[in-house]
Design goal:
With about 900 residues, the protein is an alpha+beta fold. Among the domains are: about 110 residues, no CATH class; about 270 residues, Distorted Sandwich (Beta-galactosidase, Chain A, domain 5); about 40 residues, no CATH class; about 110 residues, no CATH class. The chain has a 20-stranded antiparallel sheet that branches. It has a five-stranded antiparallel sheet with strand order 4-3-7-1-28, with no helix packed on it. Strands 2-6-5 form a three-stranded antiparallel sheet. α7 runs antiparallel to α8 and α16 packs across α18. The longest helix has 23 residues. This is Tat pathway signal sequence domain protein. It comes from Streptomyces taklimakanensis. Keywords: Signal.
């Protein structure tokens, strides 16, 4: 979804290596023996180094640093192993390492590595186990002094408040204070004006600190977390979580900003949401500079008091220096016709850049409050970057995805005074207020029968009171530089690029494949035969289509960016954005996994950025984080929270795991940890309440939990907590293995469909022999989580139970009857389920050919819910007046089918690619 400024995708073959020591955040848990065989027979990596490259070319650029994740083969790396990082020519690069996951035998599964500015711009690096890391020239340190936490990168010192409203009390470089009083701003409006006149007043809330935690303290990377809520008087609401990231030797720092909506959507309208800093100004007005990023590398470059374009010329050298941001010569040396009249040249103290849509921004300025604004330009898509300061220092600032997450805004106020005020608006106060009210009045759907009728016409599962935004969240990324002087134009352009596309180091697909992480269900892109090449072409087509649809259909906005639509309307040449359950996709049938598996096997930067945006969205906006439904996600709909189906299948950690382990993103880790106790959500809300035919009252010792979409979500959370050695790792391991063991004991295993679960013991009760198989059960991460569990555990009977489901889903009724004592009906989505058959082929060596043949037949056989070789595999041109925006469409494409086709093609090629029919 993010255009890549640094276009080259760097890929390299690799061999493997080792690991590192863990951080205190990972808690502790005992290790147990692992199953000796993976989902497929992949080679173990060697003990040599891993080649690490940049996702896009260009190196670290002006970013403060980067954190990247690397997996290791089971049993290959002992806990506590050190790492060194070097360039290809042997130059040492300081690196900080910690373990993010362990195999059950106690060896290291995933490590995270942080680098700072000393990583530079080398094209590739070698990550080597067993060697001590180089120490940074200037280590980042964290101290605690009185009421603040002080972080020193060796270049800048940042003082962080422990209470009050000032999150960042000061940012100093050398003896100069570059910025101070970094705080959060929230504007609330009590009603929305729907008529011709606006009468509503705004209330200002300030971020109030409740807790500060130092999560990492160097030597290369330090992380400080700040939690609190916005407060005005006695009222506190809109809780926030801020993380500040610092790197050794960096002149900049990164902010990860999360808010959770906990207001009343009918009277708590967000009018503005921002981050604000005060910037002291010491230079003469003609030596003070404003920079605002425009289109691409464009930049508005002005001085608070400009001396260019005047009727009298101060001199070419003077003008050139001001344009460059350099200190001007003493005015006494200028043409005195200018010097004597400097006081008559206006000072421009206030600037605003507003991006109220994805397609337009405007810039305006004024001399000071009480006077008129002057248009200063505009364009389509601003970079979200700015600078204010002078020749003695200044602050650069930026908001990632600025135009994609509109309405946004950058403000500079008071630059003609002793202090300027900079505000990065995540929600522009000049836009319409944030309106999260449900989009219709219920239309009389007060009974279950009426709601079922609604489902049958608009595909929306409506229930009064369920379309609430209470508990949804959003995370934003910001970056700040403390400059010793006004940077030159090229440096500013590089800073803006770092904001738009933060550099990311990665391990190549060959290494990711060889380590057998994520169940071994992917393999590097292979075009060695015509049949394989055609499948790769189809996969490329589908990704490119969705990437282009994001732009054409403008799937942008603060709450929307990162999601895609569910179903196309060929009559309107439009996606069904306004039709019930056909609108926003909300992870239906696992497009998140399709994208991440597509990246893992290809290393493509454009796929990574697309999947990254989706992970940021679906894990935050489509899931509840507080309230009675915390831990549940919402089914697809016109609004991301509108549908009444609140389920584990949307919130599942399986969709977050790839991004977390590839980047060690702490916020993503929070989201997965929060799901550890989500089995308790079944006490608050029965996901099958509308379709049960018998009375049911949730009982903590006998909770009805589906063995498909429900259990797979719980299992993913438990597995993640266990392998991360989180605070609840022991309990998570107990529940995970207890459910695996008792599912295996059921007469028909997974084919039983549902079991009675005991929250205290983590076990399913003994079940009667019955047959219940759903076309959705395995399509929300269960295939992937079961493959991982089989790879790492040896729970008796579990693999056999899962293989039984894999074998029998696509079997004949006669085969199901013979083995299960009954059969299931309406088992659709054969193409998507072909990967279950392929998994059976890979595990059952004696019957490999039989199941491989069946799997490819299921994959290629055209039915209503699949693509085939006879599908068009092209788009059609759409022109006005038939569409709002001219572009392309493919009426035969829908997201359910795309996600399942993508996952089935990728996994089948990995598991039985040697059997693909030509």
């Amino acid at each position: 979804m993010t255009p890549i400024p640094r276009r080259t995708v760097l890929q390299a073959a690799t061999v493997a290596g080792a690991a590192a020591h863990s951080s205190w955040l990972l808690g502790g848990a005992s290790a147990h023996a692992a199953h000796p065989a993976g989902a497929t027979a992949g080679p173990k990596t060697a003990d040599g180094p891993v080649r690490i490259t940049w996702l896009e070319d260009g190196g670290l650029g002006e970013a403060p640093g980067n954190t990247f994740g690397v997996p290791w083969p089971k049993g290959g790396v002992k806990a506590g192993t050190e790492f060194s990082l070097t360039t290809e020519d042997g130059a040492a690069v300081p690196v900080q390492t910690w373990t993010t996951a362990y195999w059950p035998d106690g060896t290291v599964k995933w490590t995270a590595h942080a680098v700072g500015p000393e990583a530079g711009a080398a094209a590739s690096y070698r990550l080597t186990p067993g060697a001590a890391p180089a120490a940074p020239a200037k280590a980042v340190t964290v101290g605690r002094k009185g009421g603040s936490v002080e972080v020193d990168t060796g270049v800048i010192t940042v003082r962080i408040g422990k209470d009050g409203k000032s999150l960042v009390k000061s940012v100093r470089r050398g003896g100069a204070e570059i910025a101070k009083d970094g705080r959060l701003v929230l504007l609330r409006q009590g009603e929305i004006d729907d008529g011709d006149q606006g009468t509503q007043k705004w209330e200002r809330f300030d971020g109030d600190i409740e807790k500060v935690t130092v999560e990492q303290d160097g030597p290369v990377r330090a992380v400080v977390r700040i939690d609190g809520r916005h407060r005005r008087g006695k009222r506190g609401w809109l809780p926030f979580g801020i993380r500040l990231y610092f790197h050794a030797g960096a002149e900049s720092f990164r902010m990860l900003h999360t808010i959770t909506y906990d207001g009343d959507e009918h009277k708590d309208f967000v009018r503005g949401l921002g981050v604000r800093f005060t910037v002291p100004l010491r230079d003469e007005h003609h030596d003070r500079h404003i920079r605002l990023g425009g289109e691409g590398r464009g930049m508005l470059s002005e001085a608070v008091r400009g001396i260019t374009g005047l009727r009298r010329d101060p001199g070419a050298e003077v003008r050139a220096k001001q344009v460059k941001g350099e200190k001007l010569p003493d005015p006494a040396t200028w043409d005195q016709r200018v010097t004597s009249r400097l006081h008559l040249i206006p000072t421009w103290g206030d600037y605003t850049l507003g991006q109220l849509s994805a397609d337009g921004f405007t810039v305006r300025k004024r001399t000071k409050p009480g006077h008129g604004w002057i248009p200063a330009g505009g364009g389509r898509r601003a970079s979200g970057f700015g600078y204010v300061g002078g020749v003695s220092g200044g602050l650069s600032f930026g908001l990632r995805d600025f135009w994609r997450r509109h309405p946004t805004q950058l403000d500079v106020r008071g630059a003609a005074g002793d202090e300027a005020e900079v505000t990065l608006w995540l929600w522009s106060p000049e836009a319409q207020p944030m309106d999260l009210r449900f989009y219709h009045d219920g239309m009389g759907q007060d009974t279950h029968a009426e709601q079922l009728e609604g489902l049958n016409i608009t595909y929306e599962d409506y229930e009064p009171g369920f379309g609430t935004p209470y508990g949804i969240a959003r995370t934003s990324e910001l970056m700040f530089w403390a400059n010793a002087a006004t940077p030159d134009a090229e440096t500013l352009a590089r800073q803006a690029e770092a904001v738009q596309t933060p550099p990311q180091l990665v391990a190549p697909p060959e290494h990711l494949t060889a380590t057998q992480v994520f169940g071994g269900l992917f393999a590097p892109v292979d075009r060695s035969t015509p049949a394989k090449a055609k499948l790769e072409d189809h996969l490329d087509f589908l990704f490119t289509y969705y990437r282009d649809q994001v732009e054409q259909r403008r799937w942008y906005g603060f709450w929307d960016y990162g999601d895609i639509m569910h179903t196309y309307d060929p009559d309107r040449h439009q996606w069904r954005y306004d039709v019930g359950g056909y609108a926003w996709d909300n992870s239906e049938l696992s497009p998140d996994l399709w994208l991440w598996y597509a990246y893992l096997r290809s290393g493509r930067a454009d796929i990574f950025r697309f999947a990254e945006a989706m992970t940021r969205h679906t894990g935050e906006v489509d899931v509840y984080h507080i309230g009675e439904w915390a831990g549940l996600g919402t089914r697809h709909g016109v609004q991301h929270y509108a549908d009444s189906a609140k389920q584990q299948r949307i919130s599942t950690a399986v969709y977050r795991r790839p991004y977390y382990f590839l980047t060690a993103d702490e916020r993503c880790g929070d989201l997965m940890h929060a799901l550890v106790d989500s089995d308790k959500t079944f006490l608050a809300l029965d996901p099958l309440r509308k379709i049960r035919t018998e009375p049911y009252e949730p009982d903590p010792r006998a909770l009805a939990i589906g063995l498909g979409t429900d259990w797979s979500g719980l299992a993913a959370a438990w597995l993640t907590e266990w392998e991360r050695r989180g605070p609840k790792a022991e309990e998570a391991e107990k529940k995970l293995k207890a459910t695996m063991r008792t599912i295996a004991r059921m007469p028909n295993g997974f084919c039983t469909g549902e079991g009675l679960y005991d929250i205290e013991t983590g076990e399913f009760a003994e079940a009667e022999r019955k047959v219940s198989m759903s076309h959705l059960s395995a399509m929300f991460g269960q295939v992937e989580i079961c493959a991982e569990l089989i790879h790492i555990t040896d729970v008796e009977g579990f693999e056999e139970a899962w293989l039984q489901y894999c074998r029998l889903y696509g079997a004949t009724r006669e085969e199901q009857q013979a083995e299960l004592g009954g059969y299931a009906t309406n088992l659709i989505l054969q193409q998507g389920h072909s990967r279950l058959t392929a998994y059976a082929a890979a595990r059952l060596k004696d019957e490999r050919d039989r199941y491989a043949t069946r799997a490819w037949r299921e994959f290629f056989t055209k039915d209503r819910w699949g693509y085939s070789e006879s599908s068009p595999w092209k788009t059609e041109r759409i022109t006005g007046p038939m569409a709002l925006v001219e572009g392309s469409g493919a009426s035969w494409v829908d997201t359910n089918t795309t996600a399942l086709y993508g996952l089935a093609a990728i996994q089948n090629l990995a598991l039985i690619g040697d059997r693909v029919p030509e």
